[in-house]
Amino acid sequence: MRKCSKTIHISFWALAAFFILAASLSLFFKDNGLDFLFSNNEIGEFAGSEEVVIKEAVEVEKEVEWYYFIASGYSANDPVQGTNNITATGKEIKQGMVAVDPEVIPLGTKIEIKEMGIFVAEDTGGKIKGNRIDVYFDSKEEAKKFGKRGIWIKIADGGYKLADLSDNEQYISRYMNR
Q1: Which of 19, 70, 122, 126 could link 175 by a cystine bridge, Cβ 3.0 to 4.6 Å?
Q2: Measured torsion, CA atoms of residues 102, 105, 106, 111, in degrees rounded to the nearest 10
Q3: In the Cβ-directed half-sphere of 55, how many Cα atoms lie within 13 Å?
Q4: CB–CB of 36/45 below 8 Å?
Q5: Distance between CA atoms of 115 and 66, rounded to whole angstroms?
Q6: Is 111:76 a contact under the CB 8 Å cutoff?
Q7: 74 and 136 Cβ atoms separated by less than 8 Å
Q8: pTM over 0.85
């Protein structure tokens, strides 16, 4: 019984010493201007008695989703592509229009192509499926110069999200290896 009481006695005094040390350290920090560690408000004691004045409010941009697409250029005066001057929506084709898969991007949707600007989805095409997009150019030379490349787009209309492209890698590998 004596061994057990010695163990309890030593444990009691070790625990008491720990609490005394913790209390003295908290008093030391509180007296040295670090009482903000023990404050419950967000500003702590740094605010002191001064009034906090907000001089400028900054609007935080909401999260915008960018989507990866394979883009190619096309023009109305290229008979090989089989295009005419009327889009799938019945409008005359012009600069700033793109051909899309309407199951992914509804016709009439405004999209932003990174580093190119705002375009309107007004046309469709036989090879435009999934994350494919055709960008209209006024001349065959501009379309050829644009070629086929990967681009990033976002919906400029707001409120609409693109259809799920969970097999995005499948489209990328299929169309980039052509």
Answers
A1: 70
A2: -140
A3: 0
A4: yes
A5: 13
A6: no
A7: yes
A8: no
In order of start, what are the domains of the chain with their CATH numbers? 2-46 (no CATH), 67-176 (2.40.40.10)
Pairing of strands 148-155, 67-74: antiparallel
pLDDT digits (tens, 9 = 90+) for 50-90: 676 767 766 666 666 889 999 999 887 666 655 567 777 88
Give the C-alpha separation, 85 to 91, whole Å.
8
